[in-house]
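We close this part of the discussion by returning to an individual protein. Part of our work consisted of pairing the sequence of a single chain with a tokenised description of its backbone. What the numbers capture is local backbone geometry rather than side-chain detail. The amino acid sequence and the backbone structure tokens for this protein are reproduced below.
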Amino acid sequence: MNPSQTLLADRVWSQGLVRNITLAIVGSLALWLSAKIHVPFYPVPMTMQTFAVLVIGMAYGWRLGGATVLLYLAEGASGLPVFSGTPERGIGFAYMVGPTGGYLLGFVLAAVVTGFLAERQWDRRVSTTLLAMTLGTAIIMGTGVLWLGAVIGFDKDVLALGVTPFLLGAVFKIALASAVLPLTWHLLKRH
């Protein structure tokens, strides 16, 4: 395998400015779509947004993955209804600094961290993909809970509000990504 093709994005399309711009736009659209799909789940409906963030990070690498999530956030800040619950719960920058703003910040950090790990081939095996996805999810939930506590007050049970309802969905998405990414690499090696 060509050492310059260390990421899934590299295997699909060689490096270049047009590629990076196109992939960032496609990735931001995937994030938008993933925020709008609500899957019935227990105890709360699940979106596929964190799955999309983490897979984009691992497929694109830390630079392009982080830039893609920043593009998505810029779309939201400009008033486009790209986030889950928008426009019903508000739009733009006001939405972003609300109770869920920490999760949005966590998206960027998680995409960068998982992208960094993918550049070290953590997306090739189930075990390392599982670790990377778990770490990325912990980053998203951790920044989300800290922000939520700062907005609504730490006297409230922020873990019960900002983490517990989403744990089962997170486990499902981590398991799904841990199967999909190594399988994709396996299939690419066969062709």
